[in-house]
Amino acid sequence: MTTSVSRPAGAALPLGLLGRLTERDRAICRLLWTHRVLTTEQLAAVFFDSLVSAQHRLVTLYRLGVLERFRALRPVGSESWRYSLGPAGAALVAAERGEEAPRPTTVRAQVTRLAAGPRTTHAVGVNGFFCSLAAYARRHAGCQLAEWWSERRTAAEWGDLVRPDAYGEWAEGAQSVSFFLEYDTGSESLARVAAKLAGYADVAAAEGTARPVLFWLARPGREAELHRVIGRAPVPVATAAASVGACPAEAVWWPVGRAGDRLRLAELGAAR
Prior knowledge:
Helix 2 crosses helix 5, helix 3 crosses helix 4 and helix 3 runs parallel beside helix 7. Helices cover 42% and strands 18% of the residues. The protein is an alpha+beta fold. The relative contact order is 0.10.
């Protein structure tokens, strides 16, 4: 069950918003156009210097109709607000892209699907991985999240062979890595997870390059057993546990078939 706060009637139309939106507001809209749903904390990490500042601005954008938001009711406490584009925000991004604006009813139907959909929690987890990287890059010179492709875009590029949850390119100093992300919630058997690597081997053969496949595990207890099930991987593979709390840019990665200290994300480009 979801709940949201009613927006005051008479929200401003897109033309009336043009003078009220900052470049950061527009960047938030562009990111939500691509990745559909982000939490307050994720948007704060990417765009703001404090959570309180983020909360205040996001509420303003919500009341203007630029953003929509929802969250599930819980017996105790409440989950973080999850933000998506509202009709005004979608219209503004469509105008920037030279596309026809989606109807408000279409935008609201998409938000309803997100609020009720079974895969939204998974999407939030995937997006959290990349928001953490983007936030790290904001605070550390020489780091850059050069690419962040959504599941839809990766499906359009490689869907005949594999369906990664996302694709990314990360640079830190002189080191860089391009990678496929598999966000593992523990809902699939380890045998099924390991079987996905055959498709990545086909991609590597077709393109002549083997990008690392990263398994970001929501349940740390699966990591060692996943290494055992994978055995000898046909492409570079590394694992890390999301619940460890460290940023994925840091030394949290355990390459399959390799002993020793864990590696930083950027180091995986040279770890074969």
